[in-house]
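Structure first, sequence second, as always.
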């Protein structure tokens, strides 16, 4: 894993000001945000902004999420280190890389081939070997590797898809932005046997989750 690089001091400031400063307390999440080089996931022309407090374009009309939101979604999964998790919406691969520090195995699915291929190249270059990138529509989860301890959806959905809830382990959590195409509420769902309870966390603005149980193209 990359630990020291030209951006290390910017990354440390990002963790202090944007992540810990806004209330993220899970030490493992803070350490993951400290160790994953976000600039490696950002197109060259935006690299100088890699540790700024916002999303950035990654091509194909998509974005890498704001660092704080990545950390918050990871913390909401409550991982200990031995879990299998799913991310829907690989994008640049950054959120998956952060999750790779927190779980045993990460599956991530992206519907756009150009992004899935680039994310795979970046993860390989960083020698992150517990993330598997899949190409396809993730609105129905990824049944082949279910159940998951955690599922994080990195795009805004009209509602929490039943198929994803069904792919949670007992006690597992789904973190998903739900609402309109243009703005959503981040929801955390928890499975308890056959029951699902959910809480609203905060308002967010993600690109749309497009597919069978999502929005139309
Ligand atoms: N987590 C990403 C990162 O760290 O860079 C950011 C993800 S970006 C905000 C949302 C991604 O979800 C886009 O790359 C988009 O193509 C993808 N997406 C949208 N609908 C999808 C679907 N049905 N299945 C898989 N990926 C989808």
């Amino acid at each position: 894993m990359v630990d020291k690089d030209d951006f290390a001091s910017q990354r440390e400031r990002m963790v202090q000001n944007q992540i810990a400063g806004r209330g993220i307390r899970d030490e493992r999440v803070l350490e993951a945000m400290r160790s994953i080089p976000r600039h490696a996931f950002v197109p060259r022309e935006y690299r100088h902004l890699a540790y700024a407090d916002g999303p950035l374009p990654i091509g194909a009309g998509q974005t890498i999420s704001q660092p704080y939101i990545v950390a918050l979604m990871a913390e909401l999964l409550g991982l200990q280190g031995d879990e299998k998790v799913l991310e829907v919406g690989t994008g640049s691969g950054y959120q998956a890389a952060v999750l790779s520090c927190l779980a045993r195995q990460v599956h991530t699915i992206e519907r756009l081939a150009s992004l899935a291929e680039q994310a795979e190249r970046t993860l390989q270059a960083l020698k992150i070997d517990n993330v598997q990138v899949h190409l396809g529509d993730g609105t129905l989860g990824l049944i082949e590797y279910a159940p998951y301890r955690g599922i994080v959806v990195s795009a805004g959905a009209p509602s929490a898809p039943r198929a994803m809830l069904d792919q949670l382990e007992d006690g597992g959590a789904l973190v998903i932005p739900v609402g309109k195409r243009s703005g959503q509420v981040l929801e955390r769902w928890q499975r308890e046997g056959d029951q699902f309870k959910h809480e609203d966390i905060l308002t967010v603005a993600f690109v749309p989750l497009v597919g069978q149980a999502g929005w139309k193209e």
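Margin note: The chain has one domain: 4-204.
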